[in-house]
Amino acid sequence: MPPIVRATFTLTNVHGLHARPAARLARLAAGLDADVGIRNLTTGTDWVSARSLSQIAMLGALQGHELEVSATGPAGQAAVDAVLALARNAFGDPLAAPEAQPLRASSDSRRVASSAREGVVPDEVPKLLRGLPAAPGIGIGPAQLLTEQPVEIPERATGSPTVEQHRLGDALAATAGELRTLQRRTWDQLGADEADIFEAHLALLEDPELLADVATRIAGGQSAELAWGSATEDIAQSIAGLEDDYLQTRAADIRELRGRVLHSLAALATPIEMTIGSPAEPDPAPSVLIAPDLTAAEAAGLEPTTTLAVALALGSPTSHASILIRARGIPLVVAAGPTLLMTPAGSELAVNGDTGEIQLSPDSATRTVLLDRARRQAADRAAAAQSSGRPARTTDGLQILVGANLGSLDDALTAAESGADLAGLVRTEFLFSGRDTAPDVDEQVEVYRTLAETIGGRRLTLRTLDVGGDKPLSYAPTPAGANPFLGVRGLRLSLAHPALFRDQLRAIVRVARETSVSIMFPMVSTLTEVHAARRLLDEVIASEGHGTPAGLEVGIMVEVPAVALKAAEFAAAIDFFSIGTNDLTQYALAAERGNPDVAAIGDAYDPGVLALIRAVCQGAAGGPQVAVCGDLAGDPRAAALLVGLGVGTLSVSPPAIPLVKQAVRAVDSGQAEDLAVTAIAMPGPAEVRALCFDRDEGRQ
640 phi and psi, to 5 degrees? Predict the structure, then answer.
């Protein structure tokens, strides 16, 4: 009998073995030629199968806990080594930042949500609530609280255990198909990292321990519905009973999947047309959707024709769900507080995604003002679309380039159709993620060439690989520090893997001989890093022959406050700066992106962030061009502010291009400079927003 091989390791993930890292471990173990077990030595748990996502979740494994892995079989040592390698890479999830699917609800908001579902309404609901604006636009309509649609669960099976097992198998397959559709859609819209959120759900559908438990219950005479429902609820309750608050919330993932499969069973029993999305669907009549929060899966199922606006008690403007909702053009307000969930169903609700205001039963005058504003916005969108191919020149003749942020070939097509002046940011990591080996030079050349052709030969700004932190690669491991956002990521990681870096530079240089290309290095902190990257680029150019490609430009991302303040020192070494306001805001204000607890702090309109943008423009004066490629650039109301600060290029999501161009055409650059000076002197982001938004309303 093969010996048992054992080893121990300390868990480094900030949030322990939550859904995604646990799913990666389960999938690894399932593919190994050995029986792999794992236990938590710190808490003294029993051994569980490493192939079972549900069993791994119930270990309650937190950062700093010591875990032991064992393996028996022909490849026992290799299996243990593979698990240890995955652990050293923090299970492909070194930061494991709080996921946006679903965000944690406070006990108060969960209690309020429960009361709202039971029809308990307070004596007086506030007429006006204020949250955070997360997707622009105005929606007015009847309130619809997102609730779980009930599914009848028969206790006894109507068929034999074999029939019930077949029914369950069909439902699991149907659910897996829905999830893969959502995963592909999310991949197209957000990228590989966001699409990875569905891996834990898919892994649970294949969980051997769970499926064995369900099969035993079915064999005992239970219906497929009862067997699946009770087995998954047992797991959810066990996870909810863990000591760690964050791991407790993973019970919601289990219950979401529980509902999906139950709805699939019901649909198979009574064939109906199902909408891809969450089992908790809003009514099809046009309405304003209210919920504690939404998962990415729920957001992916929303349609603008039936969802006039979305108002969330929790959430963050930078969550995956918010990004999906913005992409669909649905007005959204988040972080409005638990009082929102007390809104009586059917009452008229006005959601202003521009200001973050939510009004219950607005009076006729207010309703008229909002509807007029919504009509003006619709007219603006139509006019902007008609003129999207024209240059964006201010009223006094200053041309501002408006480019597109690209993360896929589909994005490039939309950018070309929307009038992009260039591709201001290509997130090349979409080509590197979700695979076991890096793309070779030829594959990269083909993809970059196709991108260039798709956007009609416009300048292509290729950001070199921006991974590490919360975006790890299995074939380019990094040390798992306490905060990998401040560790080896971006350019630091590329310099640590020179062979990988050279291949990407070689591919970029070859494409640059055919079309206008800019190389952009991400996550730069020091001039030494820039010099090292340029030396490697020079080596690649020399080895390729034919000299430096005509029109090749080299620039850096400004995401670190120190770089913004040292812009003049970098100016001589580069051709352009591109300010990533999302990360710059995160680091300047010490407010983690996507964390709902600090969402109100991490505001790019903060005068401190604006001062950093001005510092870059002043440091670059007379030299490199300055672009902004973060979310702030995509807000039309910020156009005058950014032009006034000295920014010459705005790179935005492709659908935002027409409106941003239209906003630039309404700017007087002299007045914009005065606006910027005033904004930086403001006490906080709320005052800056009011200044910019009041100006925008006055223009309309």
Answer: -60, -40
> Which helix (H) or strand (E) element contains residue 61?
none
Strand pairing class (287-291; 48-49):
unpaired
Cβ-Cβ contacts under 8 Å for 689 (sequence gap 6 or more): 605
Catalytic residues, by residue number, are 320, 629
Do the beta carbons of residue 335 and residue 328 sit within 8 Å? no
Q: β-strands 392-393, 357-360: how paired?
A: unpaired
- Burial call 565-596: b when 16+ CB within 10 Å, e when fewer: ebbeebbeebbbbbbbbbbbbbbbbebbbbbb
Tokens representing residue 453 in the block: 């052709």
441 burial (CB, 10 Å; 0-12 / 13-18 / 19+) is middle
Instruction: List the beta strands (DSSP E) in 137-266.
Output: 138-145
Judge whether residue 523 has pLDDT over 90: yes
Spatial distance between the Cα atoms of 85 and 59, rounded to a whole number of angstroms = 20
Instruction: Identify which of 151, 294, 280 has the alpha carbon closest to the alpha carbon of residue 228.
Output: 151
User: What is the rounded distance in angstroms from the CA atom of residue 555 to the CA atom of residue 543?
Assistant: 22
Q: What is the phi/psi pair of residue 500, to 5°?
A: -60, -40
* β-bridge pairing 348-352 and 357-360: antiparallel
pTM (predicted TM-score): 0.64
End-to-end CA distance of the chain: 80
The most confident of 87-96, 443-452, 485-494, by mean pLDDT: 443-452
